[in-house]
Amino acid sequence: MKEQLSKLIQLQKIDSEIARLKARKVSLPGEQEQLRVGIAAAEGRFDERKKELEDLNERHRACEKEMQKGSESLKRSKSRLLEVKKNDEYQATLKEIDTIERKNSAVEDEIINLLEEIDRRNTDLAADREHLETVRKQGEEKLRLLEKDAESIDAELESIVAGEREIRDGLDPDVLRRYDLLRERRNGSAVVPVWNEVCSGCHMNIPPQLYIELRKYEKLHICPNCNRIMYWENRADEH
Fold this sequence. Notes:
Blueprint: H1 2-83, H2 87-169, H3 173-185, E1 191-195, E2 198-199, H4 208-214, E3 221-222, E4 229-232
Parallel strand pairs: 1-4
Antiparallel strand pairs: 1-2, 3-4
């Protein structure tokens, strides 16, 4: 029975590892998608701020053209002022010049504000570009590692499953049937260690005499609380 118990312990460890690897494999696509979403979001934010900067530059170019037209208009009005003979025309032209100067001044203020904003946005965009490159580089590196994980999991699973079959073949059919039934009903945990008289499956104390029997490895023992197969685990810290 000691050999059967030893094989059961090995089988439980292998099945737990298989379950862990399969769960890991299932979680990989989600992690990869999360990384891709993160990279795409950083790219989206950068593109959005780049577009805002392009719009500001476009507005600045429009203001420069408007300013140039305003300057030419002001120059023509001032030239015409020298040729005006009548007082009412003179006053009208003065008013026109005042209007143009006010408009030009407003455009000039907007140009100054735009230049300050463009300068600030350029600085921010440089930081955004650096941040994007970091996110992209780290994300692509993690994606590469996750791809590598997926490949290694497949190879590891293939190797472990082969070992599992070998152990199963060496187990008594009744013992194996009992193990599979327990594993199905106990969320994958059929064989559990016990130390300090505590079952690690249900974390309940077991009777002292049962604990003594466990240490002999002479027969299979079932936890009186959770019905799992128990074995004594020799731990250095036990007292």
